[in-house]
Amino acid sequence: MDKKEFRNIPSVSALLEMPEVSELCASYSRPLVVSTIREVLDGLRESIAGSENTDTDLSPPAILPLVKGRLLERGKLPIKRVINASGVLVHTGLGRTPLAAEAIKGIKEVAEGYCSLEVDLSTGKRSSRGEHIEALAVALTGAEAAMVVNNNAAAVLLALDTLARDKEVIISRSQLVEIGGSFRMPEVMAKSGAIMVEVGTTNRTYISDYRRAITPGTALLLDVHSSNFRIVGFTASVKMEELARLAREFEIPVMHDLGSGALLNLETYGLPHEPTVEESIRAGADIVTFSTDKLLGGPQGGLIVGKKRFVGLMKANPLARALRVDKLTVAALEATLRLYTDSSASTQHLPILRMLTRPLKDIEEESLQFIKELSKRSGGSIAATLEDGASAVGGGSLPGEEIPTKLISISTEKPSAQELSDRLRQNDPPVFGRIESDRLLLDLRTVSNKEDVAEILNAILKIFTGVAR
Ligand SMILES: *Cc1c(COP(=O)(O)O)cnc(C)c1O
C-alpha cells in the first residue's frame, strides 16, 4: 500500500472547497455530499491498490463528475417493486411476503386519514391499539391472551426482559440459533438481562438435562424452533408436552419461540408439517412468540400469545411502548388475521398460501408456455428448458423441506448466466432468479401474475437482442 498515487488523492476538504461542490451541498444536503465524496475517494483508493495503471487523473475537477454521478445514482435507487422468480416464498431480502388485497385496502384506508386506532367507537372512550388483533389471535390459537409488537425479535426480547431479567433461562444447546440480520439467541438473551443456562449437547438433549439444571434462580424454560437448519442423524430432543409437564412441577413458565408461526396445518395441503401456534398452546406452552410476516403472510409484526398473567406483565413493561406497532401494521394485520377465520378464504386470498399450494401442473403449463414464447420471439436463438426443482419456503419455515416445482432453465454463454442475472436485476422492475451450475433458473411459483411473467420474458429478450419486441 505504498503506491505514490495514494498521495495524489485529494482530501475531502479540497473537494468541498470547489464552488461546484458548494452548489451540490445546497441542493442535496452537506452530510450527504460529504459521505458521497468519501465513498468516491475510498473507491479510487481501492481501484489504485488493485491496478498497475498509474496515470489516473486524480485532480478535484476529474473527481467531481464521479461524485455527481454517485449522487444521482443514490437519488434514483429508492425502494421499489421487484419481481421474485427465485422460488423463495418468504424472502427477507425482498420484503418477506406480498400482502393480501384486504390488507392493502386496510392500509390505504387508515393511511389516507384519521382512524379509530385507540378509540372505542361504541362508547367513544379510549381503547388500546391492537385490541382487535389480540382478540383474533386469541380466537385463532386458543390462547388466553395476546399482544402485538413490531416483530418477533421484539416479542422475544420483551418476554425475556419481563419474565427473566437477572434470572436463569434454560435452553438446549441445539437451539442457540442465529436467524440472520443479527438475531442470535444468546445475544438477545444477554441484552434482555437474562442469564442463559445451556443444557444437553448439540445433537441430543433429554428432559433429565432440563430437570438437573433447574435451581431456585430459574425463571423460564425456553424452546426455540430451529428455524433455518436441521439436525439429522443421532439426535434426541424434548417435546413441548414433556417440557410443559416439568415446568408445571416446578411452577416455572415455559416459552416457545416458534419463529414462523403457522396458523394452519400445512399437512392439509399435502405440505410437510410445520408446528402451528395452536399445537404449541395445546401442548402446554405458557407463552408462544412468532412473526406475522413469515408463513402467516401479514405485515412485519410479532405476536405473543399465552397465559393472561404473563401477557399482562408484558403489557405493563415500559419497554412495550418502544416496541408498539403503528396504525398501518394494525390495519394490515387485522385484515390478514380476519382471513384466517375462514380457512378457505385464507388459501385463496393470502398470496403466501396461494403460492405454497399452487398446483405443480399450473406452474408446469405456465413455464412451458414461457419457454415456447421465448423461443418463438427470439427466433430460436435463446434456448430454455423445463427442469424439475424445488421452491423453498424461506424465512425460517419448514427448514430443509423443499416444495417440488418446475423451473425454467436458461444456460447461455453470451451473456453468461451471471451477466444475464445481473442485467435482469437492473431491469425496471428488477427481476430476481437464481443461478445454479451456470444456469439461470426461474421459478414461476413466486411470480404472482401474468403481467409479471410477460415482463420477465420481455426483459430477457431485451437483454439478448438489445431491443424489446
Ligand atoms: C424469524 C425468527 C425470529 C425473528 O423474527 P422477526 O419477526 O424477523 O423479528 C426469532 N426467532 C425465530 C425462531 C425465528 O424464526
Keywords:
469 residues, alpha/beta, Aspartate Aminotransferase, domain 1, Aspartate Aminotransferase, domain 2, 3 domains, 7-stranded mixed beta sheet, 4-stranded antiparallel beta sheet, 20 helices, 15 strands, globular, binds pyridoxal-5'-phosphate
The secondary-structure class comes to: alpha/beta
Low-confidence stretches: none
CATH superfamily of the largest domain: Type I PLP-dependent aspartate aminotransferase-like (Major domain)
Bound molecules: pyridoxal-5'-phosphate
- The tally of structural domains comes to 3
Number of H/I helices: 20
Question: Portion of residues in helices?
Answer: 40-55%
Strand order of the largest sheet: 2-10-9-8-7-3-6
Shape: globular
Largest sheet: 7 strands, mixed
Distance between the termini: 50 Å
Radius of gyration: 27 Å
Q: Please give the number of β-strands.
A: 15
